[in-house]
Amino acid sequence: MGYVVVGPNKKKDRTYIKHVYWLTEREERVLREELAQQGVKLKSAKGILCTPLDRINRIASVAPSVWSETCYRQGGWYRRSSKNGLYLIVSSFELEGYEDKKAATITESDFVPPRLASIEDKKRLIEQPELKEKLPREWLSVEDIEKRIYLRWARRLGSDVTDYDFLYLSHTANHSNFIKPLFYVEGEDGIIPYSIDRSAHLCSCCVELFQVLGGEFKEKMVAPCPGATIFARLRPDRYLKVRSCKSEESAGHYRGRPT
């Protein structure tokens, strides 16, 4: 295997693009060695999952253990998924020879959601049996310090919310919408689910960006959560388009319109 940089590698090129791969431990080690031989350092994420999304990070690896560090509760989605035990690679260039390991391409979009979810919409979403089948046990238990952090982050992004229960409902309903969508737009390749609320009211967008949830859809529109705006410097409320790769679609059951 080898790798190749696709597109100009210039500071003035500000196009945002990230390529997402999932590798075994051995494959990650081989990739690290290949890159080192060509003078490219494969960074290792420390403690926080979303830092590889920062445009200044050319290529980074996220070990399975990182999903159980700062975002342990949110990492339950990963640990309960088919990705559990795999290494996440987030790269600003494509990796030649790893096409069958590629899960998605992430780019910025100008998407504007036709409608955001109301309280009643969110309650409908969290009652879906498909969510309950996938919901990690860890997700249900939130410590007081985490509640305070998310309320503070929401206010930092301009929300006046004072009730964590509202945020928890929004967080859970948003993930549900990428399991069995109620909020989506029509695309040429089927439906395109999207984040159901503003960035201030979201959590763990990494789950959708990295294809832990919703990989069976050809496209998704994902708004960054507060953590991603802080630690990866993503723009609040600027939706990212996640385009699934053939290898990812074949791993699940690609869906068109939900039934």
The overall pLDDT, averaged over residues, is: 92
**Can you list the strand order of the major beta sheet?**
2-3-4-1-5-9-8
Radius of gyration using CA atoms only: 18 Å
Beta-strand residue percentage:
15-25%
Number of strands: 9
Broad shape: globular
**How widely separated are the two ends?**
41 Å
Sequence stretches where pLDDT stays below 50 over 5 or more residues:
none
Helix content: 25-40%
SS-derived structural category: alpha+beta
Provide a count of the helices.
9
How many distinct domains? Answer: 1
Describe the sheet with the most strands.
Answer: 7 strands, mixed
The helix/strand series, from N terminus to C terminus, equals: EHEEHEEHHHHEEHEHEH
Report on this model:
The chain has 259 residues and is α+β, with helices and mostly antiparallel strands. The protein has one domain. The protein is built from nine helices and nine strands. The protein has a seven-stranded mixed beta sheet with strand order 2-3-4-1-5-9-8. Strand 6 (184-187) and strand 7 (190-193) form a beta hairpin. Helix 3 (119-126) crosses helix 6. The chain is globular, with a radius of gyration of 18 Å. The chain starts with 16 loop residues before the first strand and ends in an 8-residue tail after the last helix.
Keywords:
259 residues, alpha+beta, seven-stranded mixed β-sheet, two-stranded antiparallel ribbon, 9 strands
What's this entry about, in short?
This protein has 259 residues and is α+β, with helices and mostly antiparallel strands. It contains nine helices and nine strands.
